[in-house]
Design a protein that fits this description.
alpha/beta
Length: 276
């Protein structure tokens, strides 16, 4: 949900559409600079959240950050910005920060993984508290994280790995080549998740349909049931007991009337889950 007007406004918007869980940015996601919180903003956010009963809540870091950057000045700038994001999560009481592993820019997968792990260790050492959730990506260009093995390798290279988990994304998994539209293909994906990442590492799931086809490696989100994945693929996720209690978060396209489209997407997922 948008934080326009203050962090607490995201909670009000979430209540408006009937959310149970919430994801926010803690700053403008397309700028390096993080404006200080306004007087009373943190307290208002915490109060609104407590009153709403919404949870879990997670944050997503800004899109300019690239912890795998080949360019050393950009890597340092990204690390500094990421530390600020973690600090803002700690201030707000948000327990998890989702991040894309980044793009190695031609340096190679191994070097990119090393740089991400180095940055994560530095950031987690600097800021106690919040976990980092590595997001599975679609694999555009030289992006890391489009294979589960890459996510596992990054985490294994971080000494403070107990504070590193994983955020799955249905659109990204599908675009990266993981099919889960039928019970057999979903079971195969679950076995691969368990074998590669291990139990308990998935802490959040982004629920997005895909405008592009299986294995396209193109990240284009679509409304639930209206893309290449279709309703059947989401039914597998929302009925899996393994994910019970985890935040399943919409990142579907935001139309001008977001209340209508968000309510519709939530209703589709809840119907598929057999809730109503």
């Amino acid at each position: 949900m948008s934080i326009a007007g203050g962090m607490d406004q995201a909670v009000l918007r979430a209540r408006m559409v009937g959310c149970d869980a919430l994801q926010v940015f803690t700053k403008n996601n397309n700028q390096w600079r993080a404006a200080p919180f306004r007087e009373g903003e943190v307290e208002a956010f915490r109060r609104r959240l407590a009153e709403s009963g919404i949870g879990p809540v997670v944050a997503h870091d800004g899109y300019l950050i690239n912890l795998a950057a080949r360019n050393r000045p950009l890597w340092k700038k990204s690390l500094a910005a990421f530390i600020v994001e973690l600090e803002r999560c700690a201030t707000l009481g948000i327990p998890s920060l989702v991040t894309h592993p980044g793009s190695h820019g031609g340096a190679g997968e191994g070097e990119g993984i090393r740089r991400v792990a180095e940055a994560l260790e530095a950031a987690l050492t600097a800021v106690p508290g919040p976990m980092v959730l590595l997001e599975a990506t679609a694999g555009q260009g030289t992006s890391l994280g489009w294979r589960l093995e890459q996510l596992a390798a990054i985490r294994a290279a971080v000494p403070a790995r107990r504070r590193v988990g994983v955020c799955l994304d249905t659109c990204h998994l599908f675009a990266a080549g993981y099919d889960f539209r039928t019970p057999p293909t979903y079971r195969a994906l679950r076995r691969e998740i368990d074998a590669t990442l291990g139990p308990g590492l998935v802490r959040a799931i982004h629920m997005n349909d895909s405008k592009k086809g299986l294995g396209s490696r193109v990240d284009r989100h679509e409304h639930i049931g209206r893309g290449e994945i279709g309703p059947a693929g989401f039914r597998q996720f929302v009925r899996d007991p393994a994910w019970r209690g985890l935040p399943m978060l919409l990142e579907t396209p935001k139309e001008p009337d977001f209340r209508r489209t968000d309510r519709r997407n939530l209703a589709v997922l809840r119907r598929l889950a057999g809730q109503r």
